[in-house]
Design a protein that fits this description.
The chain is mostly helical and 103 residues long. It has 4 helices and no strands. The longest helix is centred in the last third of the chain and has 21 residues.
Length: 103
């Protein structure tokens, strides 16, 4: 299922998307936040969308792949939490705020 999701992501974005690409992109977003994020709110929303894509992969991954992704994403998510303030309400309407807490 992960392969199929990655193919869908790649088709939508018109370039190759891999798990590594998404994890690196999320880490770059966090590094930008830690440095004082200098882009627009629209860029920030796009960056948060990357975390959504990672969650979509986690949701369909085999146990082994899920654990591999979670091993990396946990540290990144901790850095994100440490570098941001909790908003009064999500930046986007999300059905499951507990699951998509980064919004």
């Amino acid at each position: 299922m992960v392969k199929k999701k990655l193919e869908e992501f790649s088709q939508r974005s018109k370039h190759n998307i891999s798990i590594r690409y998404l994890l690196n992109a999320w880490e770059e977003t966090i590094e930008g936040i830690e440095a004082g994020y200098e882009y627009s709110i629209y860029d920030y929303l796009n960056d948060l969308d990357r975390r959504d894509l990672i969650q979509e992969l986690i949701d369909v991954a085999s146990d082994k792949t899920k654990q591999e992704i979670l091993a990396e994403i946990r540290l990144l998510d901790q850095r994100f939490i440490a570098s941001t303030d909790l908003a009064n309400k999500p930046l986007r309407e999300i059905i499951d705020v507990e699951k998509h807490w980064w919004w």
